[in-house]
Amino acid sequence: MSSPPTPTPLVVGIDLGTTNSLAAVRAGKGARVLRDRDGEPLIPSVVCFHPDGRTIVGREAKALRLSHPDRTVFSVKRLIGRSVRDLDAEVRSLPYRVVAGERDLPRVQIGDRALSPEAISALVLQEVKATAEQALGAPVQKAVVTVPAWFDDAQRQATKDAAALAGLECLRILNEPTAAALAYGIDGSKDGTALVYDLGGGTFDVSILRIDDGVFRVLSTAGDTHLGGDDFDNLLVDRILASFAKAGSSARPSDPYVLQAVRAAAESLKIRLSTEGSATLDLDLDLDSTDGGGRLSLTVTRAEFEAAIAPLVQRTLDCVQRAVKDAGLRIDQIDDVVLVGGSTRIPLVRERLEALVGRKPHTGVDPDLAVALGASIQADVLAGNDRSLLLLDVIPLSLGIETLGGAVQKLILRNSTIPTSRTEEFSTGVDGQTSVDLAIYQGERELARDCRQLGRFKLRGIPAMPAGLPRIAVTFLVDADGVLRVNARETRTGVEAGIQVVPSYGLSRDEVRQMMLDSIENAQADYLAREAIDVRNKAEAMVRGTQKALQMAELPPDQTYAVQKAVKALQKLLAANAEAAALKAGCDDLTKVTASIADDVISSAVTKALREEEQR
Ligand code: ADP
Ligand code: MG
Question: For residues 567 and 541, what is the distance between their CA atoms, to the nearest angstrom?
Answer without folding.
Answer: 11
